[in-house]
Amino acid sequence: MARSIEASAWPSNPQWGWVRCLLLLLAAAALPPAASAQEVQWRTDYKKAREESAQKGLPIVLDIGTETCFWCKQLDARTFTDPAVIALLNERCVPLKIDANKQTALAEALRIQSYPTLVFAGPDGRIIGFQEGFVEAPRMKELLTHAIAAVATPEWMNQDYKEASRLAQEGEYVKAIGLLRNLLDDGKDRPVQARARSLLQDIEQQAAARLQRARQLAEHGQKADAVRAATELAKAFEGTLAAREAAQLLAVLTSRPNPNDPQRLTRARDLLAQAKDDFRSQLYSSCLERCEVLAATYADLPEAGEATQLLAEVKGNPEIMKVACEQVGDRLGGLYLSLAESYLKKGQPQQAVYYLERVVQVFPNTKHADAAQARLAILQGLPTRSDSKKP
Q1: For the sheet containing 117-121, what is the strand order?
Q2: Is 200:177 a contact under the CB 8 Å cutoff?
Q3: In this structure, are strands 94-99 and 60-65 parallel, antiparallel, or unpaired?
Q4: Phi and psi of 41, rounded to 5°?
């Protein structure tokens, strides 16, 4: 009769029993830990968790409880030990655990009334949903899947951004602009959308530089070259602000004004008088703007010649140009603030945040930067429950 491996491997003498037990214990200790020993990698710092969420594009799962909460302990012992739940939290989310008795400000801001309460938020801080009370692992998996899907970047977005980048590198700006604007249509702030905004801004800046060149050509009387530059700009960068302004410049350059039109003569004289008043009042940015319009639009009139001389005087003086640049910056900062407010009224807070942050970065230590910083503090502060809905 055949014998088992275990029976044949050990002598039947009882004195070997203690040796056998010792070896079995050593072998068990050498085994790797079981999969169930894995744990949720909880974060405990709210600010760092927000930063990680924004950087990785993952939702935050905020578990708010107390040390004496019975159902909080049940959640830890029964739900957060499930392998599938652990995998979702560690790989697809940023799990954050908060003790409401120690971090009261956050619990109060979220208006937490019972424990445990789970809060699900996107990388932009937007609340996706709440879950009050204990839930079993199957329900937790449903909640996590919902949160992940709510912030996930659709594959088409990644593909469209990749294609837009390629088109921009090849000079196909019109097609690239169309793809990028479609990516930003929902007003969210996924990582791929942040990159899309940056690329779109780069294209706008390239178009603006070409527009400046076309205007300079017009100012120096190089009408044919200015027309060519404006035409190329309007075609190659269609859809940008600079392209629209280039079309307007082109219409002016290719028009055939009546030199004897009394209204046109009056407009030119008034514009020159305003430019001179601006110069005397040290409103140099307005003076430059009026002179450029005179030089481009009324090139056939004597007023354009005077405007060109005034332009040369302003641009040839670095101290005056410094003041002009500061005035332009002050005006642009105010425009960005107005743009941010218009996005807020349209229900697109992430677009507003983008331009508010731009004001702070581009115009530091100004009244506009202070106003933008104060607005950002409200928009990017602790999330409020009144702005959210339960899943």
Answers
A1: 94-99, 60-65, 117-121, 127-132
A2: yes
A3: parallel
A4: -85, 80
Helix axes of 302-315 and 318-345: crossing angle, nearest 10 degrees: 100
Interior angle at CA 385, CA 375 and CA 149, nearest 5: 95
Residue 178's nearest CA partner among 192, 196, 154, 152 is: 196
φ/ψ of residue 380, rounded to 5: -105, 15
Residues 6+ apart with CB under 8 A from 136: 78, 79
Give the length of the chain.
391
d(CA 216, CA 267): 22
pTM beyond 0.70: the answer is: no
For residue 259, the model assigns a pLDDT of: 62
Q: Is the per-residue pLDDT at 339 higher than 90?
A: no
Q: Which residues contact 320 (CB under 8 A, 6 or more apart)?
A: 284, 313, 314
- Of 152, 177, 153, nearest to 164 (Cα)? 177
**Average pLDDT taken over every residue of the chain:** 81
Q: Is the pLDDT of residue 185 over 50?
A: yes
Could you tell me if 26 and 159 are in contact, meaning their C-beta atoms sit under 8 angstroms apart?
no
What pLDDT, on the 0 to 100 scale, is given for residue 337? 85
Between 150 and 381, whose confidence is greater?
150
